[in-house]
Write a structure and sequence with these properties.
alpha+beta, Helix Hairpins
């Protein structure tokens, strides 16, 4: 991170710590004050992080800076010890940012004192900390859900046996048939809970996504034909090989295709596209990647409200009368296990698009 000098400074006079501070290109904004609390150095990001449009003036006094900076500079010069403060800073109408200010006393070779103030945006760190806590809670919930689902399935074995016996003895019993149907529904729910809570087998190998997409589309084409839904495919990704488990990837794709067909009552269009992605988008994948394959599954259905869109991948969240709310949660977990990313875009009345990024093999 480049530093702009406010007055001629001989780097040889600075302490080794300050030299390393400038050379390491820290990811935090930096301000350096002399023993008179006047600004001597500032990084290009300092003013922006503090909500200013222009850099600070040369030799600007620390008392004109936000209060935490002034107090830390005074304390560091007075005690010759480091000090820190975390809080919010907002100037000139700029959005408030959670910032951590750290003052480090520095000593020149001739004995003169100065203070380096590091300004760090801790908003991302706090969000990551919140995400970790959220993942811990989900992991605990997943373990509990798996144990409960296992016990429920054990109990269902006995209930199903009695229901089958009831139907054998009285084939006309409507209650027995209803019980049998509900048992199947409960068994289906517990099966999905177990699939969501258990990691898939790590049986990964090169898989051709175009062939996998075609196989999945063959399963939904009869439903599309019956609902007057047009299927459009544009497969442009080269290469189309990803390193993964074909069965799990097929399950994820089929979940999205079924959701798309269910979202259209008729006279709609189901579009499935692939293309190759490189650069920053590919590098953003977990673990990083030079190239990735993008899959887009788009429908022209009723769309999803922004309120529901934010919760779309949450376990047990559903807007379907008979839905379990686990289909998309399982789909996201499968994509994440393949070091990929899935996102959704939607507007009410304009349909929904799901975007998947997977690293190529």
């Amino acid at each position: 991170m480049p530093l702009t000098a406010q007055a001629p400074v001989d780097r040889g006079e600075l302490s080794a710590g300050l030299v390393r501070l400038m050379q390491d290109e820290l990811t935090v904004a930096t301000l350096v004050f002399d023993a008179h609390q006047q600004l001597r150095l500032q990084s290009q990001d300092a003013a922006r992080m503090l909500g200013l449009d222009a850099p600070f003036a040369p030799r600007q006094h620390a008392e004109t800076f936000p209060q935490p900076i002034h107090e830390l500079v005074q304390r560091a010069l007075g005690t010759n010890a480091s000090a820190s403060h975390t809080g919010f800073s907002q100037r000139n109408g700029a959005p408030a940012l959670p910032l951590r200010f750290t003052a480090l006393p520095l000593t020149h070779v001739d004995g003169r004192a100065s203070v380096a103030v590091l300004v760090q945006d801790v908003g991302l760190a706090r969000r990551l900390e919140g995400d970790v806590r959220h993942l811990d809670r989900l992991a605990s919930m997943g373990t509990l859900a798996a144990e409960m689902a296992h016990e429920v399935r054990n109990a269902l074995v006995a209930v199903k046996t009695f229901a089958d016996l009831l139907l054998e003895q009285n084939p006309q019993a409507e209650l027995g048939e209803t019980m049998q149907q509900e048992i199947k529904r409960i068994d289906s729910i517990t099966t999905q809970v177990l699939k969501y809570s258990r990691p898939s087998a790590a049986d990964f190998c090169p898989a051709g996504m175009h062939e996998l997409l075609e196989r999945s589309l063959r399963l939904v084409r009869p439903r599309c034909a019956g609902g007057n839904i047009t299927v459009v495919t544009r497969f442009a990704a080269q290469p189309d090989l990803v390193h993964g488990n074909e069965g799990c990837l097929a399950q994820a794709i089929l979940n999205l295709l079924l959701n798309a067909t269910e979202a259209m009552s008729g006279d709609g269009t189901l579009t499935v596209e692939t293309d190759s992605v490189a650069g920053a988008a590919a590098a953003s994948l977990p673990g990083g990647s030079e190239r990735s394959l993008r899959i887009v599954i788009r429908d022209t259905g009723a769309g999803i409200s922004s309120e529901h869109l934010a919760r779309l991948f949450e376990p047990f969240f559903t807007t379907k009368p008979n839905g379990t709310g686990l289909g998309l949660a399982i789909t996201r977990r499968i994509i994440h296990e393949h070091r990929g990313v899935i996102t959704a875009e939607s507007q009410p009345g304009k349909g929904t698009s799901f975007h998947i990024l997977l690293p190529v093999a």
